[in-house]
Amino acid sequence: MSYSLDLSSRDALLVIDLQNDFCTGGALAVPDGEAIVPVVNRLIDRFPHALATQDWHPEGHLSFASSHEGQTPYGTIELSYGTQVLWPDHCVQGHDGSTLHKDLNKTALELILRKGFRKEIDSYSAFFENDKTTSTGLTGYLKERQIERVFLCGLATDFCVYYSAIDAIKQGFETFVIADACRAIDLEGSLAKAMTHMRESGVEILSSDEL
Question: Does the reported pTM lie above 0.90?
């Protein structure tokens, strides 16, 4: 399918979780995560609307391995809403790790949406928490502003970017992932699975030089 990539007021850039804990030295560092910051800043300059999400977990969040006796990071458990990967403690509210990267152009962001703040449920997607029914309110925000297309970048390609892209499609937005403005965790082949599912679901994968 071909698209016109001329940007208009109906387009929004969504910067996913570009936070210290997902960059080098962070509690849940995505390999080479901070390398995307200059690319993301250039994109922010190009888009009429730029928004960001921020993982914002309370202490003792249920997705933390430390919250479950005998569990270690990157294992899984079953919760009421399905299988949950257990993570190192990360993006804890008010801690430096939860802060957006210092070099990110935050001044131009019109909205910073915090997610994952409910202790009993994780939230990968910018649109819904992991029960797939609790809304973050982002769909309403975008539709009130007559946004029709969303372009995603950030961390990590195979988790929060991926889940956000799939939900964006389901919410009726034309959806694009800017691959060179993302980085992946790639946990047991998760990147290849995410890329395949995104393409099969109608998400267009492109690079920043196509904009």
Answer: yes
